[in-house]
Fold Alkylation response protein AidB-like acyl-CoA dehydrogenase.
Amino acid sequence: MPFTLTPTYDENPRLRELVTRLRDYLDGELADYEAKLGLTHESRYTRDVLEPVWRRSRELGFYGIHLPPEHGGQGLSFTELGALKEEVGASGRVLQLSVLGDMGGPLRAGSILRYATREQLDRYLLPVIRAERACCFSLTETGAGSDVRAMTTTATPDGEGWRITGHKVFSSAGPFADFSVLIARVAGSDAYAAFLVDLDSPGCTVRDAETPMSGQHIESDIILDDCYVGPGQLLGEVGDGLRIGLGRVTANRLLHCPTVLGLTRRALALTLDFARTREVFGGPLAALQSIQHKVADMATGYYAARSMTYDGLAALDAGGRPRAEAFMSKLFVAETAFRIADEAVQIHGKAGLVRGSEVEWLFRSLRMFRVLTGSSEIQKNAIAHQLFLGERN
C-alpha cells in the first residue's frame, strides 16, 4: 500500500467501506455531539453522556464489530480490527474509546466469552455487547503492575461463594461500569481466579483514581472489603484467573498498537497543517529545510512502526503466534510514537506548549504508552527472553 496518512484499503472492499463510514461518523455526527456538549479530553462526563454513543455506534454496526456474527459482529480479522482502531485513534474525538467498545464495551468483554456460563452470558456479557451494560477489568494494584503475581487482593471461600478483600487501581471504565472482571489470589494457595463483581455490591466501593498525565477521568480504584460474590460469579475455573485477566496476550499487545498509531498519525497530520500555515521569516514554516527533515523523520518512523504492527497482525490472521514480534511492536511503537509527539511539540513551538492544545495532549497521552500495558523495559526483557530461549520457551 502506498504511504498516506489516509489509507484507502482498495485491496479490501469490505474494509474500505467500513473505514469510509467510520470516518463519516467520527468527523460528522460524533464531532457534532461532542461540540454540543463542549467536551474536551479532560472533561468529567457521566454515563448518560456515553450511552448515546454506545447505542448509536451499535446501530451503525461498529460497537462490537469484531465479534462473530452470532454476537452481532462481522467477525473481523485482526488486521481489519487494527485498521478501524487506528482510524478511531486518528480522529481526534474525545469519546473515541466508546465507538468500537474499548471503554467498558465489547472489546473488553469479547475475549472472555468462552469462559462464561450461559447464566453469565445472559446476565453480564451479552448486555455489554448490546450496549445496555458496561464492564471494567480490575487486575492492577499499586504494588502489582508488571509483576501481577504480587497482587494482594484475596478471595476466601465462604460456603459456596467467596469473600473478596483488596484494592485495585487503574480500572479503565470503572467510573461508568456496572460490574468488574476482577482477578484475585485464592486464599491459602498460589492459584488465581476471576470473578464477575457487581460494583454496587455491599463491601465494594468505586472511588476516583489518581488522574493520569493525560488528564482523562476514565479510571477508578475498586476497593473490596469482605465483599461477597456467589458461586455463579466465578468466571471459568479456579486457576484460570491470570489467563483470563491477561486475555489473548499476544493479540491484545498487538491490538494496542493501532490505537497509538492513530494518535501518532493525528500528531503528524496536525504538524503538517501547522507547518504549512505558520508564517516565519516571510514564508511558511514548511519551507525551512530543518522542518522538512524533522517531518521526514516523523513520517518514516510512523511508517516503520505501522509496518511492524500490521505484519504482526497479518501473522495472527494466518494462524501464527508472533510473540517476539508483538513485544517488538509494542516497544517500537511506544518509543517511536513518543519521539514523533516530541517533535510535534517542538515544531509547534509556543503553540505546542499551551495546556489544552491538542498536540500538547497527544504528547502527554503518547508518553504514557511507554509504561502502560507493559513498560518498554518489560518488552525488552521479553524480547531478550525469546531470543535466548527460542523454541525452548
The longest helix spans residues 249-277. The mean pLDDT is 94.
